[in-house]
Recover the amino acids of this structure.
């Protein structure tokens, strides 16, 4: 594992340092919000769309000169062993809710790289992020810190599973009331992994896009902080830390090629933004990065628009095992298309069968058990490598955003079963011979 | 034909804080026109200069996205419920 100095190799040290490292000056670096479409300015309050002009999404505006004056490689390296070492790039103004989120391993791939014929492949494994084993812990840590600053006492989200896990867990840690909304047909592990934190869980009869629509109406009427609705501009910024960590873990340099999953398109575009901000503030040298995106064929509105050369996203009705990325009406789809096209990357869709095979491939070659979103990303990586779209000497980073233990249903019929034996040597020997015969 | 329209919070300043309004219209295009006649300025928020619905805005007729129906030409019937929802991120 490429780490952050000696301490990153030891979990107890990580936890100790996370809890005790002092944070730097609380002076903020963000100045407000602005419409990403028309540029209209807004105060840094709880709103997410350009209500004065065009309904475009709002994003956080930073004083980049102030950030540049404050940050340095040394200061970041001496910071907390969590996403909050990059606090100057995040839109908060108080002590953050720090549950140790971030600083997940960046593994130099051997087995998978060899299988795919790639020499410089790295795996960013957010399947072991804390507290809930997905990248969502990053965005929720930022969103709930901002929610608390804005005075919300109840927080909520529309979720395909991972976001509900994370919102419920971090709300519990922060002492915030929590009500989450999920599609009723989610994987059992994701429902259990939310309920255990004792939030109110609304299982909606409908797909994620319908859940999202309901939540917009609830957000209009209940005055709650919805992490991915009225807190979305702050929430989305948390994904930039996936770029910051990779740049730091690569020894303060940028990769050549990134492969990441696409659901709403937010994570994909924010990874690019994170790399850009490191360049703008002089922390890394600029170089071109290709961004490739992964979707499941059963829900691939962005990949379809990419293939057809369209600038708009035609929504689809999801039908895939990759539920965590099954968003048929992706809000950041147009921006994701733009990132792929401008960077010389691509957006590719893979079948459910390819997703399951890729989950197994990653597990067998790297010892990483990812969920269906990760399977989608690895399947696309494989496709790109096999079709020559990744040069063997490119430094390629593939993002694994969730843990396979949450979606065991996806692979349970494809991984064999244990040998059932008696507690006798003879029984074992017979089974062992059978196992060897099966290779 | 009476059509019920759920007005999102950011637009309620046009509707004197009414969250639900009732209008008559034959189709979604006509509904946008009728909204603008009763609440001047609303159409400019919903549509661009060419009259096309803004790309980050979703309109639902009885819970179905109009892009799965007939877009702005989607025919409306008495008692239909219309939601106007800005796109949001997942997930």
């Amino acid at each position: 594992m490429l780490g952050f100095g000696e301490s990153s190799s030891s979990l107890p040290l990580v936890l100790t340092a996370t809890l005790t490292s002092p944070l730097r000056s609380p002076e903020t670096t963000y100045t407000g919000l602005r419409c990403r479409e028309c540029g209209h300015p807004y105060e840094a309050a709880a709103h997410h769309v350009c209500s004065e002009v065009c309904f475009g999404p709002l994003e956080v505006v930073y004083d980049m000169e102030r950030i540049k004056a404050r940050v340095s490689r040394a200061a970041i390296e001496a910071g907390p062993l969590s996403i909050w070492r990059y606090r100057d790039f995040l839109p908060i103004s108080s002590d953050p809710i720090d549950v140790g989120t971030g600083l997940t391993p960046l593994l130099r791939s051997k087995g998978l790289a060899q299988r795919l014929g790639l020499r410089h492949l790295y795996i960013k494994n957010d399947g072991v992020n804390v507290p809930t084993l997905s990248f969502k812990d990053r965005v929720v840590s930022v969103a709930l810190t901002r929610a608390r600053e804005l005075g919300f006492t109840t927080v909520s989200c529309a979720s395909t599973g991972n976001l509900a896990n994370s919102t419920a867990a971090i709300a519990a840690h922060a002492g915030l009331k929590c009500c989450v909304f999920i599609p009723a047909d989610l994987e059992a592990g994701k429902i259990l992994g939310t309920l255990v934190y004792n939030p109110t869980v609304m299982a909606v009869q409908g797909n994620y896009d319908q859940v999202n629509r309901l939540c917009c109406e609830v957000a209009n009427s209940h005055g709650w902080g919805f992490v991915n609705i009225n807190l979305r501009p702050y929430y989305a910024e948390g994904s930039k830390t996936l770029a910051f960590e990779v740049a730091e873990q690569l020894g303060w340099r940028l990769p050549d090629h990134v492969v990441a999953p696409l659901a709403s398109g937010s994570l994909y575009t924010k990874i690019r933004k994170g790399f850009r901000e490191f360049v703008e503030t002089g922390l890394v040298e600029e170089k071109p990065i290709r961004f490739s995106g992964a979707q499941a064929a059963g829900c691939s509105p962005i990949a379809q628009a990419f293939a057809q050369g369209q600038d708009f996203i035609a929504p689809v009705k999801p039908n895939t095992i990759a539920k965590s990325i099954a968003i048929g009406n992706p809000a950041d789809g147009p921006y994701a298309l733009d990132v792929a096209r401008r960077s010389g990357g691509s957006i590719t869709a893979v079948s459910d069968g390819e997703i399951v095979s890729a989950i197994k491939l990653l597990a067998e070659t790297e010892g990483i058990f990812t969920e269906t979103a990760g399977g989608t990303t690895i399947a696309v990586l494989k496709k790109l490598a096999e079709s020559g779209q990744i040069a063997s000497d490119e430094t390629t980073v593939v993002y694994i955003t969730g843990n396979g233990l949450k979606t065991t249903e996806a692979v349970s019929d494809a991984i064999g079963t244990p040998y059932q034996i008696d507690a006798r040597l003879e029984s074992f020997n017979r089974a062992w011979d059978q196992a060897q015969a099966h290779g | 034909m009476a059509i019920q329209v759920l007005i999102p919070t950011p637009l309620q300043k046009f509707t004197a804080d009414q969250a639900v309004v009732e209008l008559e219209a034959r189709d979604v295009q006509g509904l946008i026109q009728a909204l603008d006649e009763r609440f001047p300025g609303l159409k400019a928020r919903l549509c661009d200069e060419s009259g096309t619905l803004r790309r980050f805005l979703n309109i639902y007729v009885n819970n179905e996205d109009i892009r799965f129906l007939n877009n702005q030409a989607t025919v409306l019937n008495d008692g239909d419920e219309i939601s106007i929802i800005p796109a949001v991120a997942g997930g």
